[in-house]
Amino acid sequence: MIDSHCHLADEVFAPDLDAVVARAKTAGLERVMVILEAGNQKEVEQAGHVERLWPETRFAIGVHPHQAHQFADDPERTAVLVQDQFDSTPAARAIGEIGLDYHYDFAPRDVQQQVFREQIRLAKRRRLPIVIHTREAEEDTFRLLEEERASDTGGVFHCFTGDRAMAQRALDIGFHISLAGIVTFPRALELKEVAKMVPIERLLIETDSPFLAPAPNRGKRNEPANVVHVAATIAELRGAAADEIGQAARANFERLFKP
After folding, report:
1. Which residue, 65, 104, 126, 244, is most buried by CB atoms nearer than 10 A?
2. Judging by DSSP bridges, how do beta strands 92-101 and 2-6 pair with one another?
3. What's the confidence (pLDDT) of residue 143?
4. What's the predicted TM-score (pTM) here?
5. What is the dihedral of CA 218, 221, 223, 225, to 10 degrees?
6. Inter-helix orientation angle 76-87/109-126, to 10°
7. In CATH, which superfamily holds the domain spanning 2-257?
8. Confidence band (pLDDT; 50, 70, 90) for 152?
């Protein structure tokens, strides 16, 4: 089993990183994809520690829409920063997480969009998949993906929280859908329907830890070991075995990210 999206380089894991990694391995995880914020030196240092503890770890690097304001004066600098860090990170396999977030609007929307564009273009030049964060920005997200022909490189809508129609739009342009702990919440009825309709060959599972701990750990700090609860919930919804979901998600991860 694989956690396809987590933030083990976040400082919240620094005090007990060794134990967190040990619990993930005990839970049966073979590897994780750790998301790094481009230019964040503290995360770079902790990423090194993660990799020493768990050499199978892979990384995605990008400028999150929350940080897009830092590049308002020169959005093209985004791609330079990400590319430089990517080239110095041998275990990096994807550009992300990148996208649009209109819920918090920490950066002006036009700046978010241009920073997103620059990173899609970088991914296409490097023939790398992208990891998409989109919140309350569905139409602009799909518009930019279409305008930049992001289907040429593909990727994943991480921590998907949309409805079936949005999921179908993502699938139609060749992207994967990754489900996180929210799918275990009793009231996430629409998301449970998404979990049933996504083709098994386009499904990924993740924790997005330290955020969004699944039931029965909701409200606590999340960690990669908890991805087993995501797999179990999806399996129940689809009438499958949890191992089947885990193995399929693993195969999809390897096909998409070539770890």
Report:
1. 65
2. unpaired
3. 98
4. 0.97
5. -50
6. 40
7. Metal-dependent hydrolases (3.20.20.140)
8. very high
